[in-house]
């Protein structure tokens, strides 16, 4: 077991540790996997000791998974979907088996397949707000049931009741199951933004923006408008030496996203606040932006830099 002095660790420290200590198993999240792949390709570091690269914690772009399979041919790459409340994997995907199928690469595998891997598989359902099951390929909240799930939060009965639904764990994630039983994650329920009466999944917009060659890191959030609905705001950390404006960003989004999914405002930031498990902390991000900036946004006043 190798523990680095700083956490979350930067990509350079991780690669140095892998090379120096001949690490065999590495756990990552989406952005880190992308950066590891890019940095390894650019520097040619000797990290052939890696046998397993696990990833998860956020939605991972198919391009990132495909590039990782190519860059690390000797390692088994596993995209894992899990929650602490469930104790272990809910579902997992092995990208090498689907590297030529961009649709399957967007999934987190088939929950039922865990049984074939010697584990107890969870029951997974997709429900509407009223608790009723949805149709195949229809999005809703992912709920999970199994002997491995928690019985509640320690000494927090109210929070436990909110998280549980008649024995099912409410994950707080929005997703859908296809006809073959593959599970697809769309976003966190709390991160859905209503634009012109339509649901926009911030994770979908973030994946598109993250593929831009000038973008190092990105978070998309919704800001309520005075009149009705919300507006999309992109907060971006650029790669060193690059610039980007809102018009350029919207043009990049055009081939991949419907018009109402384009960010209406752009902030260029030095860093994005992150949690202890290296996820973007959107609550802190909103708090970091001043009330005057939010006032301008809600009144459709364009702002291009922090």
From TrEMBL:
Keyword Ligase part of the UniProt annotation: yes
UniProt record, GO biological process: fatty acid metabolic process
Superkingdom to which the source organism belongs: Bacteria
Record keywords, A-Z: Ligase
Residue span(s) of domain AMP-dependent synthetase/ligase: 2-154
Any GO molecular function: medium-chain fatty acid-CoA ligase activity
Segments forming domain AMP-binding enzyme C-terminal: 204-279
Keyword tRNA processing belongs to the record: no
Family statement drawn from the similarity comment of this UniProt entry: Belongs to the ATP-dependent AMP-binding enzyme family.
Name of the protein described by the UniProt record: Long-chain fatty acid--CoA ligase
Species this protein is from: Paenibacillus albidus
Taxonomic lineage from the root: Bacteria, Bacillati, Bacillota, Bacilli, Bacillales
């Amino acid at each position: 077991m190798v523990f680095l002095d700083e956490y979350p660790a930067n990509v350079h420290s991780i690669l140095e540790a892998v090379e120096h200590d001949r690490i065999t198993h590495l756990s990552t999240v989406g952005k880190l996997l992308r950066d590891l792949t890019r940095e390894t390709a650019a520097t040619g570091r000797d990290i052939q000791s890696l046998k397993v690269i696990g990833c998860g914690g956020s939605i991972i772009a198919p391009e990132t998974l495909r590039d990782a399979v190519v860059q690390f041919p000797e390692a088994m790459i596993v995209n894992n979907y899990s929650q602490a409340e469930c104790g272990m994997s809910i579902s997992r995907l092995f990208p090498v088996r689907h590297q030529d199928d961009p649709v399957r690469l967007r999934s987190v595998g088939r929950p039922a397949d865990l049984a074939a891997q010697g584990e107890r598989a969870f029951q997974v359902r997709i429900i509407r707000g009223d608790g009723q099951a949805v149709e195949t390929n229809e999005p809703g909240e992912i709920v999970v049931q199994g002997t491995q799930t928690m019985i509640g939060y320690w000494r927090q009965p109210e929070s436990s009741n909110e998280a549980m639904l008649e024995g099912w764990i409410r994950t707080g994630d929005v997703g859908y199951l296809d006809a073959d039983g593959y599970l697809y994650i769309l976003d966190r329920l709390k991160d859905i933004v209503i634009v012109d009466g339509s649901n926009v999944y911030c994770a979908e917009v973030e994946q598109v923006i993250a593929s831009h060659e000038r973008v190092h890191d990105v978070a998309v959030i919704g800001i309520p408008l005075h009149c009705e609905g919300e507006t999309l705001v992109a907060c971006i950390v650029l790669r060193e030496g690059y610039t980007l404006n809102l018009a350029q960003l919207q043009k990049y989004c055009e081939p991949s996203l419907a018009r109402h999914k384009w960010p209406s405002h752009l902030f260029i930031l030095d860093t994005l606040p992150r949690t202890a498990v290296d996820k973007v902390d959107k609550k802190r991000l909103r708090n970091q932006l001043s009330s005057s900036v939010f006032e301008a946004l809600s009144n459709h006043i364009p702002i291009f830099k922090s």
